[in-house]
Amino acid sequence: MAVSGGLLGAAGYRSLPSWCTPAYARARAAELVAAHQAARTEVVRNPHRNAEWAQAVVRAPRLLGAVQDLIGRDVAVENTLLVLKWPYQNCEVPWHQDGINDRVLLDPKGSVAAWLALTDAGRANGCLHVIPGSQRGGYLPYGPEPGTRVQRGRPIGARVAKDTWGVPMAVAAGSGLLMDVRLLHRSLANVSEKARLGLNIRYVAPGAVTMRDGSSPSLDPVSGTGWQSMKGRRTGS
């Protein structure tokens, strides 16, 4: 059944220019490339919980202000994911929706996903591809995507027609996208000579998270006072 267009309107996404300066983003990217190059790490889970650079990013004033305009003053981080696409390495992320997996279900009325470019992202190095308006279809059935290299636990690939290409979203370092948590998106391999780094953040308002196992969500509040009585919350770092 079709559902509302959501917080981000008919398209289901919005550009987020200049959450930081390009120089700041590229400096952080250079540090991360140096730290992870030897191991060729592709995914770092929840860096905001132990890395100062990520703790600063999730609280970046322009970013946080844009999120608050959508879901209110009380904002917490439910999850972050740093993806590093190394040159000529077949690191693809399949079609998926950020708000649903085997662990969690996010209420699209009280949550939003941010994708932030730490390096320039274009077609050659694996920028996001989105399907505008796909959030109107609600959450879709999903399952393992065979052959994907990104180690995300159980890779989540929404079942999308194989010939669906989507719209490529070229984004400069220091800018990004805000997305409805139901919006279908993916990224392809990096076939350029330099690494491509992006940080995905899931922001939520109080009551917007349902844990599939019935447990209390572990959240990291970044603004507001509505978290003090919530069970299972994290204090942030």
UniProtKB/TrEMBL annotation:
What's the protein called, per UniProt? Answer: Phytanoyl-CoA dioxygenase
Among Pfam families, the record links this protein to: PhyH
Which InterPro entries does the UniProt entry name for this protein?
Phytyl_CoA_dOase-like (IPR008775)
Q: Which residues form the signal peptide?
A: none
**Organism, scientific name:** Streptomyces longispororuber
Write out the ranges of the annotated region (Disordered).
210-237
Q: GO molecular function terms here?
A: 2-oxoglutarate-dependent dioxygenase activity; iron ion binding
What SUPFAM superfamilies does the annotation carry?
A: Clavaminate synthase-like
